[in-house]
Write a structure and sequence with these properties.
It is a single chain. With about 425 residues, this protein is α/β, with parallel strands linked by helices. Helices cover about 20% and strands about 30% of the residues. The protein has 8 helices and 35 strands. Strands 12, 13, 15, 16, 18, 19, 21, 23, 25, 30, 33 and 35 form a 12-stranded parallel sheet that branches. Strand 2 and strand 3 form a beta hairpin. The chain binds uridine-diphosphate-N-acetylglucosamine (UD1) and calcium ion. Uridine-diphosphate-N-acetylglucosamine (UD1) binds next to strand 1, helix 3 and strand 10.
Length: about 425
């Protein structure tokens, strides 16, 4: 099946009050646009994606080119409406035959499962044009779905709607699936004689109906999935919604989460069964946590963290870009960054991997091999390696590699001044 996607991301996002493009704002270290592109790719059905860019086009293009091989950006300037935006892709898809799905770049909660169900519905109905709809108690600002019997007959924007149409609670979710070669001619015929003076994408529906094509609407099951971001408030709300879904998935998979209200887990974190997550844990970015681990309370995993089974990461421990093998403990007040740590290692309280050189701006690696013991309050100045079963005395600053089974310490000898207090 050959499907292409078009993702609309040219709009300004004024209400974000930001110099950054709206779609490059992040939730758990991943951009809004990244969520949409990942969901589209996870369907396993999409060949290429075309991201329509306009405002801050340069930074969005850079992001897409750097991160997505099967996506490219297409410039829309000026931005004359959603229909005009899609028409920018017409030259790219001149000879394409097959389905195109259209989504927005600012709806990070959309899931691959929903997109797949939507495409399946489109296929079952032998539809030429399918719109995703949602039922809202308060449909204000959305385009309203006008049906004729079962079939979709038009979408009317809020600003163009009659009072009677405004009372319709079924709205346009802004996701479309179309048989490209059949709908493509519509894009050269769109008019902007409406309340907003824009070329509306939604006008392709009445066009298709007039052409005698098969048009349908698919009702979304979970309205949260089309939650669109227009402000920093929306960004915070979306983060909460996403977190709640992620936590539910892990609970269903057998992860024990003590306090769902203070636990934050990014969508791209895998966690094995019987791992326990204690309160006030923040896990961002992409991570893989094994089975029977204990994380927190008050732990921070910052991404690119791999924890094998039975690892303990305790309170006030931060881990970034590191691999920690099975049954290793870092239970208190520690920073582990750019490190590779073996199994059965004990990392004492207050241990720091000093991975960053402020002057060269370089980050270096720390390696700690199986069975080593790192005494409390030690600093491992990277690059450095601690060998198998080596022991580091408490308070040591390790700047040279430590051999297997050796004891290394930089502690000043303890002095005793008798009767000093007297
Ligand atoms: C649009 C729909 C509306 C639907 C709603 C769902 C139209 C005419 N209306 O309205 O029926 O209920 O989405 O959220 O399509 N964009 C561009 N170029 C443009 C204009 C917009 O790329 O010239 C992008 C925006 O960045 C945004 C998306 O298209 O990601 C939607 O645009 P927006 O103006 O927010 O559409 P709505 O008015 O909300
Ligand atoms: Ca608009």
């Amino acid at each position: 099946m050959s499907i292409n996607s078009i993702i609309l991301a040219a709009g300004k996002g004024t209400r974000m009050k930001s110099e950054k493009s709206k779609v490059l704002h992040e939730i758990f270290g991943k951009t809004l646009l990244g969520y949409v592109l990942d969901a589209v790719n996870k369907t396993g059905k999409i060949d290429n994606s075309y991201v329509i860019v306009g405002h801050q086009a340069e930074s969005v293009t850079e992001f897409v080119e750097k991160n997505y091989e099967n996506a490219k950006t297409v410039l829309q300037s000026p931005q004359l409406g959603t229909g005009h935006a899609v028409s920018m892709v017409c030259p790219e898809l001149e000879n394409f035959k097959g389905e195109v799905i259209i989504l927005c770049g600012d709806t990070p909660l959309i899931s691959a499962e929903t997109i797949n169900k939507f495409i399946d519905f489109h296929k079952e109905k032998k539809s030429d044009l399918t719109v995703m709809s949602a039922i809202f108690d308060n449909p204000t600002n959305y385009g309203r779905i006008i049906r004729k019997g079962e079939n979709l007959s038009a979408i009317v924007e809020e600003k163009d709607a009659t009072l009677e149409q405004k009372s319709i609670k079924e709205v346009n979710a802004g996701i479309y699936c179309l048989v490209w070669e059949k709908i493509k001619p519509a894009f050269s015929q769109l008019k902007s004689n409406n309340a907003q003076g824009e070329y509306y994408l939604t006008d392709i529906i009445s066009w298709a109906v007039q052409e005698g094509l098969n048009t349908n609407a698919y009702i979304l099951e979970d309205n949260e999935e089309i939650f669109g971001i227009n402000s920093k408030t929306h960004l915070a709300q979306a983060t909460k919604m996403m977190n709640r879904k992620t936590i539910q998935k892990h609970l269903d998979n057998g992860v024990q989460i003590v306090d769902i209200d203070t636990t934050w887990i990014s969508q791209d974190t895998e966690i094995g069964a019987d791992t326990m997550i204690f309160p006030n844990v923040y896990i961002t970015g992409k991570n893989k946590i094994g089975k029977n681990c204990k994380i927190g309370p008050f732990a921070h995993l910052r991404g690119d963290v791999i924890l094998e089974d039975g690892v303990k990461i305790g309170n006030f421990v931060e881990v970034k870009k590191s691999k920690i093998k099975s049954n290793t403990n870092a239970c208190h007040l520690t920073y582990i960054g750019d490190s590779e740590i073996g199994s059965g290692v004990n990392i004492g309280a207050g241990t720091i991997t000093a991975n960053y050189n402020h002057f060269t701006k370089e980050k270096k690696n720390t390696i700690i091999e199986d069975g080593a013991s790192i005494g409390s309050n030690s600093v491992l100045v990277a690059p450095v390696k601690v060998g198998k079963s080596a022991s580091i005395g408490a308070g040591t600053v390790v700047t040279k590699d430590v051999n297997d089974k050796a004891l290394s310490l930089t502690r000043a000898p303890q002095r005793m001044i008798e009767n000093y207090v007297k």
